[in-house]
Amino acid sequence: MQAPVMVLNANTKRDTGKTAQLGNIQAAKAVSDIIRTTLGPRSMLKMLLDPMGGIVITNDGNCILREVDVSHPAAKSMIELSRAQDEEVGDGTTSVIILSGEILSVAEPLLERSFHPTVIINGYSRALQAALDTCNRISRTIDIDNLPEMREIVTAAIGTKFSSRWSGKMVEMAIEAVKKVIVTRGDYKEVDIKRYVRLEKIPGGDLSECHVLNGVMFNKDVTHAKMRRRIENPRILLLDCPLEYKKGESQTNVEIMNEEDFNSLLRQEEEYIEQICANIIAFKPDIVITEKGVSDLAQHYFLKAGITAFRRLRKTDQNRVARAVGATVVNRTDEIQESDIGTGCGLFEVRKIGDEYFAFLEQCKDAKACTVLLRGGSKDVLNEIERNLQDAMQVVRNVVFEPRMLPGGGATELAIAHHINSTKDSVEGIAQWSYLAAAQALEVIPRTLAQNCGANVIRLLTELRTKHSQQDGHTWGVNGTTGASADMRDLGIWEPYCVKTQTLKTAIESACLILRIDDVVSGTRKKKAASS
Q1: Which of 145, 250, 307, 339 has the smallest number of CB atoms closer than 10 Å to its CB?
Q2: In this predicted model, what pLDDT tens digit does every residue of 166-218 receive, in sequence order?
Q3: Is 93 an annotated catalytic residue?
Q4: What pairs with residue 197 in β-bridges?
Q5: CA–CA distance from 195 to each of 178, 259, 323, 369, 392 (Å)?
Q6: For the chain, which residues score pLDDT lower than 50?
Q7: Alpha-carbon separation of residue 312 from 285, 324, 325, 343 (angstroms)
Q8: Separation of alpha carbons 129 and 292, rounded Å
Q9: Is 391 a catalytic residue?
Q10: What's the start-to-end Cα distance of the chain, in Å?
Q11: Residue 128 pLDDT
């Protein structure tokens, strides 16, 4: 008998066939079980310790999984899902993991009956198409200028979060902040929340003090104590160059023959700064903000001319100021034009909040950037509110791009499950099993909502299935607060169409990808011998 040939390294661990598939499914279920309790208005919070010893308290799916350190490759790919969902649409990060875990979990009995993964995937793909068709059919278009409708949508997104107690305030802030940064260019709308909406967190105060500024603020004080700290209708100049003499890149050697040469060197430096300041003062700005340094001499000239100066402002803050006041960032002082001066700000003021100074540029005429001021009891509370507000703003952004809605509270998932069950005869062969299994998996969302608020799950789901089988019953779902069945039209719980469809696509496609894996090879490299 021929000796077995070892191709792989002896240290390599290898799972093949059904063992690998079932192992991957178990890993995916474990990940989805971590965050199952964080779905819905009655959700629990998770407390995580990061490697640096910091604490994160949250119920945001993406945030939890980002902090969890996992070693299984299938679990890592599941965690990537919530990150992709967060980057793409900003909401539904918990749902996508729960749904994906459940879709894999209902494939387990089919694999044990020796179904081929390709057959299961075929059924799932048909189910995804049926789901998207159903979403298209039951969606309704809304008017983004209709405030009550917009409030309903954002309230549904914020209702599952920690800040739901102040949901009225949060909803208004999210809608106001996003509407400020909408820029229309021809047919295309640009909504850049990441760059032009800054969330400034200041510990202390009360959550009721949070508000969206009609303008921007940044954490800087004036460079000289005697400069003006309050100016109405200021002329603002933004610079990207240092207002100090040029320094050598590394080391500069100067040979001096006469003692007057040293004085002339100093004089040249002073004249250079004087020239720069003269260029600036000629345009009579009230405020000069630069990203680089401002020398003492330049401060002196500015003070004499009654100009307030700020130095070393972040590039991102500078861009926000430019958008808010209608200024252009200038790179050289001798190229300043009148059109570069920003005049869109109504009031400039330096205020002290806590023990730090903040410069406010408010009452802007047409601000296309804004700052959201967040106050709260502690750093953890503020971090969680920031995450909640980010999600709410993403929801508003999605609605601006695609103003279509689907019923929330698990109603959409139940409507899709009902549609799949009623069209099962259109799928021929054994793919029908996995087609129906997808319908069963979709019911995990209403089921989890019901479990999290302690309702009688079996009775509730049976009641909802009956409602959905009746004419025009597709808006019935779970009232996440009381655990009773309710019509989502009455409760006013609607979810953005693109969040829901993205969740379904991501969950089903990733489940198909994981099911296709039939071989997991984890090689451990030999540790190099420590050098003596």
Answers
A1: 250
A2: 777 888 888 888 888 888 877 777 888 888 888 888 888 888 888 888 889 98
A3: yes
A4: 370
A5: 12, 53, 11, 9, 16
A6: 529-532
A7: 18, 19, 19, 22
A8: 55
A9: yes
A10: 45
A11: 92
* 286 counts as catalytic: no
User: Which pLDDT belongs to residue 129?
Assistant: 92
CA 171/CA 180 separation, integer angstroms: 14
Catalytic residue among 38, 58, 93, 448: 93
Residue with tokens 């709410």: 392
pLDDT at res. 525 = 59
pLDDT at residue 4 in the model: 66
% residues pLDDT > 90 (the chain): 8
Give the type of residue at 479.
N
Both tokens assigned to 500: 């829901």
Catalytic residue, chosen from 38, 58, 94, 134, is: 94
Element (H, E) at 193: helix 193-196
Task: Say whether pTM exceeds 0.85.
Answer: no
DSSP code per residue over 83-147: HHHHHHTSS-HHHHHHHHHHHHHHHHHHHHTT--HHHHHHHHHHHHHHHHHHHHHH-EE--TT-H
Check 86, 286, 340, 391 and give the catalytic one. 391
Residue 5: is it exposed, middle or buried by C-beta count within 10 angstroms (0-12/13-18/19+)? exposed
Contact 413, 127 (CB under 8 A): no
- 3-class secondary-structure state, position 284: coil
> Taken in order 65, 71, 77, 78, is the CA torsion positive or negative?
negative
Q: Residue 232: beta bridge partners? A: 347
d(CA 521, CA 140): 47
Tell me the CA distances in angstroms from 235 to 50, 76, 282, 327, 336, one per residue in order: 46, 52, 12, 9, 13
Q: Which of 94, 347, 343 is nearest to 214 (CA)?
A: 347
Helix (H) or strand (E) holding 487: strand 485-487
User: In sequence order, what E strands does 118-244 have?
Assistant: 140-141, 182-185, 188-191, 197-203, 211-212, 216-218, 230-232, 236-239
Q: Report which secondary-structure segment, H or E, holds 403.
A: none
CA distances to 230, 240, 273, 340 from 307, rounded to whole Å, are 11, 17, 15, 17
Which of 60, 91, 317, 380 is an active site residue? Answer: 60
Q: What are the backbone dihedrals phi and psi of residue 287, each rounded to the nearest 5 degrees, phi first?
A: -130, 135
Instruction: Give the sheet arrangement for strand 211-212, strand by strand.
Output: 197-203, 370-376, 211-212
Whether residue 94 lies in the annotated active site = yes
pLDDT at 530: 46
Structure-token pair, residue 372? 């959201």
Upper half-sphere CA count for residue 119 (Cβ side, 13 Å): 16
Tell me the CA distances in angstroms from 370 to 159, 201, 289, 391, 516, one per residue in order.
24, 14, 17, 17, 47
Give dist(CA 433, CA 120) in Å, integer: 8
Residue 44, token pair as written in the block: 């629990």
Helix (H) or strand (E) holding 26: helix 17-34
Which single residue is written with the structure tokens 């749904």? 99
